[in-house]
């Protein structure tokens, strides 16, 4: 089925957060962020900063700067052109555990705007909370169905929630990706753009 909407996880799928955070203690930092996201709601910039203080013992000022600039971490090399190609076929939206400011940073790197940036700061909840997708459905006027494709390198929690909502789940094999059930598996977003164009 041709997609009528594509939503994307951003950190780890579109943006290379391993390059942004660095290899050292990366898994421990990401696990710390996941744990912090289960507590009272705080902006993602604060979650990143706290995780860096906890795991790397980074000073508070440097950690806060890194959290605020998370959207400037490098894109995967295929992301910009692949997203541009797919946006000619269907609307593209981010559904992301991040802040509005990160959305501006990521879209500045892309060189164009997505159709929507639905983030944890706006919804005041972190994925896999289904409120992120419910907010996307309302904002974009789209029902949950198979023509809505959700794209993520994290099938263990991100795609699992999307599957429960009846979406088509696309797993992208990225460094640090976490496998699980998916309807479509691709090596990168360029291969997904090829598939979308051919569907």
Write a structural description.
It is a single chain. The protein is an alpha/beta fold. It folds into two domains: 5-16 and 73-198, 3-Layer(aba) Sandwich (Rossmann fold); 17-72, no CATH class. Helix content is 47%, strand content 13%. It contains ten helices and six strands; from the N terminus they run E-H-H-H-H-H-E-H-E-H-H-E-H-E-E-H. The protein has helices spanning 17-21, 26-37, 44-56, 60-68, 79-87, 100-110, 120-123, 131-140, 155-164, 189-198; strands spanning 5-8, 92-96, 116-119, 148-152, 168-172, 184-186. It has a six-stranded parallel sheet, sandwiched between helices. The longest helix has 13 residues, at 44-56. The radius of gyration is 16 Å and the shape is globular. The chain starts with a strand and ends with a helix.
